[in-house]
Amino acid sequence: MAISRRRVLGFGGGLAALAVAGCGSNSGRPAGGGGDKPALQQWYHQYGEAGTQQAVERYAKAYPDATVTIQWSPGDYEKKAATALLTDQGPDVFEYPNGPTIDMIKGKQVVELTDLLGDAKSDFNSALLERMSYDGKLYGIPQVIDMQLLVYRKSLLSAAGVQPPRTVDELLAAAKKLTNDKVKGLFVGNDGGVGVLGGPALWSAGVDYLTKDNQFGFDDPAAFESLRKLRELWTSKVLLLGAPTDWSDPAAFTQGLTAMQFTGLWTLPVIEKALPGDYGVLPWPKLNATTGAPSVPVGAFGACVNARSKNVDAAKKFAQWLWVERTEDQLDFAQSYGFHVPARKSLSEKAEKLKTGPAADAVKLLNENGHPQNPMLWSPKASSAYSDALNRIIRSGADPATEIKTVKSVTEAELKRITG
User: Fold this and answer.
1) N or C: which end of the chain has fewer CB within 10 A?
2) How far is Cα of residue 140 from the mean position of the Cα atoms in its chain?
């Protein structure tokens, strides 16, 4: 399956991505602009939705004040982009998951973009602007919003006498009732949720990756209990494992292999076509009646400007033109080649596909229960440590309290490095 904008919601937002086949890129920096126009290079990862590459090339061609060349990058885009920023051959404008990393900002590899939003600032999703900011300064412009959610088959739940779950215990009980010799109760990825449930497990317990004052956030008994519940899902034999495609594809759900699946908003058009009217959407539930809150992870690629660009001012002007001024292109990018929420409130209100049915319910979940998938100061090294801990807890039965203390040690060292 082709990788799409959903990559922004892979675990941690900074781990290596899967390679994808095919390439339609223009490599290398353009020799020069037309006439007196500056030459700019803009980088994107390779989107899976048909027509996306042609769309961004069309946007670039329409820009009157520079000659913009698009590089369409397959494979481990994040590593390519991070490496290119260390050289003089990097892009002028580039997208990055949830905006640039704290190391890019602290290393002065990207420039501040706060002044580009102007009066439009209040129209952008505030949580994503905060996620792409450091010390009150903005370093990325949100392009489009993706989110994860739980989908369920209405007919299967009704036949089993199961109500849509509101707590993790209810989810476990529902998954048990819905599991039989043909259907599993729940699919959260072929790894048992290691890749996608790290954040929801914390928010479910009423904690977060980091506290408001940027201290380690989940050395807490409620977090340990929440992680034990993920282990219980694994040992209860209610999870679909070894599915032909992973959590980001709806095939397991549409083919009847699972009654519930944790997946993404982008899958709803396929689900609607396969199961019209027979599905609903939910957040990941809160831990229990008195602890935590339901949640949906939210992510966005952010447009960034390379500080080593030979035309920083021209690059900023282009980023402003495309991602602030060109609202029709922004709506087109969000709606015409997949199924995503525009990063701006006024455009979300114009998105016809999001106004009815489960899609409208999903947008409501985003507004009420959305969490940026991780904080700015949550580094890739901390993310890897947490991922390793989740793997040991869920798949091997390791003690959550012991594992989280190890993650805490790694995270505190990283926070000291970043802020010291």
Assistant:
1) C
2) 15
Which residues lie closer than 8 Å to 199 by C-beta, 6 or more apart? Answer: 209, 295, 297, 371, 373, 374
pLDDT for residue 5 is more than 50 = no
pLDDT digits (tens, 9 = 90+) for 90-125: 999 999 999 999 999 999 999 999 999 999 999 999
The residue ranges of every structural domain in the chain are: 39-143+300-343, 147-298+375-419
Half-sphere exposure (Cβ direction) of 137: Cα atoms closer than 13 Å: 12
- The single-letter code of the amino acid at 409 is S
Average pLDDT, the chain: 91
What's the CATH class of domain 147-298+375-419? Answer: alpha beta
Q: Do domains 39-143+300-343 and 147-298+375-419 have the same CATH topology?
A: yes
Q: What is the distance between the alpha carbons of residues 143 and 338, in angstroms, rounded to a whole number?
A: 14
CA distances, 414 to each of 33, 215, 253 (Å)? 42, 11, 39
Distance CA 303, CA 188 (A): 30
| Residues pairing with 146 in the sheet | 299
Q: What angle do CA 370, 247, 191 make, to 5 degrees?
A: 110
Handedness of CA 408, 409, 415, 418 (dihedral sign): negative
State percent of the chain over pLDDT 70.
92
SS3 content of the chain, % helix, strand, coil (to 5): 40, 20, 40
Q: Using one digit for the tens of pLDDT, what is the confidence trace for 134-171?
A: 999 999 999 999 999 999 999 999 999 999 999 999 99
Decide if 142 contacts 170 (C-beta within 8 A).
Answer: no
Instruction: Answer whether CATH 3.40.190.10 is correct for domain 39-143+300-343.
Output: yes
pLDDT score at 13: 41
Please spell the DSSP secondary structure of 136-162, one letter per residue: TEE--EEEEEEEEEEEEEHHHHHHTT-
Cα separation, 92 vs 305, whole angstroms: 6
